[in-house]
Amino acid sequence: MGYKRETVEILRKFRQNMGSDFYQEDARRIFRAKLTELPQSEAWPVSEKKLQYARAFCQHMLVGNFVKYIGVSGSVAAGIAKEEDDIDLFIVVKNNTLWIYRGLMLLKNLFNKKLRRADSTEVKDILCPNHIVEERGLKFEDDVFNLHEIYYLKHVYNPDYFDKILASNQWIRSWGGVVPVSDITLKRMSIFREAMNLYFFLPQLLFMFLSRHKPDVKRIFQNYLSGKIEFFPANFKSKVLKLL
Hints:
The chain is α+β, with helices and mostly antiparallel strands. It has one domain: Beta Polymerase, domain 2 (2-Layer Sandwich), CATH 3.30.460. The chain has ten helices and five strands. β2 (87-93), α5 (98-112) and β3 form a beta-alpha-beta unit.
């Protein structure tokens, strides 16, 4: 399937609303198409500097053999970062290890202090793992927001894994995107790892209450069941899509 003109127009408006544009290089990456009527990409030195920082410190995000992929997302990946911005991270971990991984990362952060805390006031260049998913949670909703989020990820660990992310979202084909054929097979869940994940989940949820983070319990439990953590406002995507 070739690229769709309407998808180009939607993506261009989407990115112009962010203060950027949809460039020739973006069309080649997403559609494998050469669209010379689009502008050439511009240099975004702030985003590039923060991306290099994330690559330099991505080893701090690795715990055991849990992590399958790390990508930079948000304003840095979109090329519109400001000096004072943090660095959003999208992380994929093995099934039934999400809350184990997060718990161990929080303990590790007590010493290296590389991660953003809920009460952080100064966030410049702080790593913010605001979207962590298990491999079973890689399929996202079919919309332009997620299309953009996926294709604009900047790989900082295990870039070869990105094809699995694409293959988990075959709906991208309906937008004209080039997606590998899915060969993903779900492995049998480990009962022991599932129990350990729950064991790590409950005290972290309790800590959110005790530290007055005002957690959205319904959303957290729904994401727990589907293998995700989303530490960004629940209505963020809908607000962005309303601008289209």
